[in-house]
Design goal:
278 residues, 2 domains, Rossmann fold, 4-stranded parallel beta sheet, two-stranded parallel ribbon, globular
Length: 278
Amino acid sequence: EISALPILLFAARHNKFDVTNELDQARARYPQLKFYYGRHFGITNSIVDLWRQRLAELDQPLGKQEISELLSPSLPISNIPSLPSQASTNQPTNIHNRQDTVLLFVGRGSSDPDANGDVYKMARILWEGSGYKTVETCFIGITHPRLEEGFRRARLYQPRRIIVVPYFLFTGVLVKKIFAITAQQQEQYPEITINCLPEMGIQPQLLSILREREIETQLGQVQMNCQMCKFRLSAVSHGHSHNHHHHQGHDHDHSHSHNAPDPYADVEQYHQRIWQLP
């Protein structure tokens, strides 16, 4: 027996389509083995608590070095804009109150509307009861609104501070892009303090979730709600049973090259394509 566990935050194309196709091939090639497929991480209390803890750390008195790391991981101390006067002497200082702060929740973005909707739900749950002025949700790729538009919307509330929450497990090209855009925004709007939290990384909470997902597969308790899955909706509209087996191609590039054309850059084009199957 083999249990395959997707280390994925939400159930988008990779979870519903790519991995399942690979498992189908493995089952055909190794009929003597029994394969189980676990559930993605999804929205869990432990992940919400992880981000709440990180946000709570921003409420603590900070010195100049810590403020530098929070404003932007790529921004040197010498370039910190609009620091409170106390920071110049390395005295501890609070940045701003939550009532003056807008959360900017940044998802990866996918070609799966259901997964994109879960990003909004996660952002909303994180904001509920937090005391922050509001939360804006955006994405770094594929879907919309993009990060630059997210910053524009966040500024409409005239906050003293914007906290960027990159909802990623690991660092990489896209997380670094978020850091770079955040630094640009801070330079362009020095009157607003912009904090950029790091990606989640390897945390005990995530390892515990992974273990829970493994146990679910072993006990046959894996459940997914495919009510809004575009694969299921397409199957229903064509009058045949629901499956995810279409073809092996990808509908978006994984090289993340900055020179590669973005097929979803135009919002209208995105709307025309998003419910299409690969």
